[in-house]
Design goal:
By secondary structure, this protein is an alpha+beta fold. The chain is built from eleven helices and twelve strands.
Length: 389
């Protein structure tokens, strides 16, 4: 109020009965030194953000539990920032593994092939699947299986790459190793908070994560059921047929499929939902191929975005109404002063009333011109005294 400027903040409000809400508040200065305040409840959004952070922590813990080393690279494929897992594995310092420095820990015979394959994956935006020998922190050479996938933002642009190194030195074949870790595979999928489900090479539902169980709640039975039958309970045509075609193509060719911002009306409930989803071919614990589907529910985010757009539209409407009323008030005051001038007796009084009317009308004209400019919020505000006018 003192500086006559707008402000935005979020804060927690505690109710007397023990409940609480998070509020997003916006305050705008208005004529007379007061404030116009808009607020909305963002408790669900805050809870969602907290859940996302907790899910990420559980995901990292799950990677550690399977003896995997988690690392990230930027959108161009360079290792940046602190990588504690990589540092523990190789003994490299942060300065040593930055950019492509990590390649110095790779066996000399494998380093260049690794870089070539990695650059090809980054350029094509396709998952990186590779094996190479790596010098461990104790100087021992170990063989690792590598898998990295690109992570995209809402616009579909690659934000970063997330990869995992698995030590497979003791295994003569990666598929045999997966078969020996069937229990770990199942527990990793089932307990995962993200939306994940796995189908076998006959396109039957094999595993469903805790995060995906909510989406499939109206499909019974689910495990062992044909994925086409399960999807038809949830979604209408032609989406289901298109999805099944993509599942078959990925299973046969190994080429991943990504769908951004899919919006469909559910077939089992009265709701429209939005999802990002991706399918990839994977090696199952029994040695056969299958398909894993990752999906993320965007419905809550899109609802919040629509609410924000509506709030901004309401704010704009109120601002224009206030501007219109101020302009009318200034015009009326100026006109009344001019009317009063006609009944004044002395020349001094007439001149004073005429000057006052001119000043009021001048302020009104400045106000009108300022608010005719749609970019007034990005410009400067001048404070002009009545004497200057």
């Amino acid at each position: 109020m003192r500086d006559s400027r707008s402000v935005a903040l979020e804060h927690r409000y505690d109710f007397p009965d023990g409940r609480y809400s998070w509020l997003d508040m916006r305050a705008y200065p208005i004529e007379g030194g007061g404030l116009a305040i808009f607020f909305r409840d963002v408790t669900e959004r805050r809870a969602s953000e907290l859940g996302h952070r907790e899910s990420e922590a559980r995901f990292r813990a799950a990677i550690d539990a399977t003896d995997g080393i988690l690392w990230t690279n930027d959108a161009e494929g360079r290792m940046v920032g602190e990588q504690p897992g990589w540092a523990r594995l190789t003994g490299q310092t942060m300065a040593e593994y930055q950019g492509y420095g990590w390649a110095t820990a790779v066996h000399p015979d494998d380093a260049q092939p690794t870089i070539i394959a990695w650059n090809a994956a980054v350029s094509s935006r396709q998952p990186f699947i590779f094996e190479h020998r790596l010098k461990r922190h104790d100087g021992a050479w170990r063989r690792f299986a590598i898998r990295a996938i690109p992570v995209a933002d809402d616009a579909g642009e690659i934000r970063e790459w997330v990869g995992v190194h698995h030590d497979i030195t003791e295994a003569t074949d990666t598929r045999v190793q997966l078969a020996g870790n069937a229990a770990t595979f199942e527990s990793l999928v089932r307990g995962n908070p993200f939306g994940i489900y796995v189908v076998d090479n006959a396109l039957r539902v094999m595993e469903v994560s805790a995060g995906a169980a909510k989406a499939f709640r109206n499909v019974d039975p689910l495990i062992g059921r044909d994925i086409g039958e399960a999807l038809r309970v949830l979604w209408p045509e032609p989406f289901v047929s298109q999805a099944i075609t993509q599942f078959r193509q990925t299973l046969e060719t190994g080429v991943p499929y990504v769908s951004h911002g899919m919006i469909e009306t559910r077939a089992d409930i009265d709701a429209t939902e939005a999802h990002d989803w991706r399918i990839e071919r994977i090696a199952l614990p029994d040695g056969s191929d299958g398909v894993v589907c990752y999906f993320y529910d965007l419905s809550d985010r899109m609802k919040l975005e629509e609410e924000l757009r509506q709030a901004l539209a309401d704010k704009e409407l109120l601002t224009r109404e206030v501007e219109h009323r101020v302009q009318n008030s200034l015009t009326i005051v100026g006109s009344l002063l001019m009317l009063q001038r006609t009944s004044a007796v002395t020349t001094e009084t007439k001149n004073a009333l005429a000057a006052a009317s001119s000043r009021v009308l001048a302020i009104g004209e400045v106000h009108r011109r300022l608010h005719q400019n749609q970019n007034v919020g990005n410009g400067r505000i001048w404070r002009v005294s009545a004497a200057a006018l």
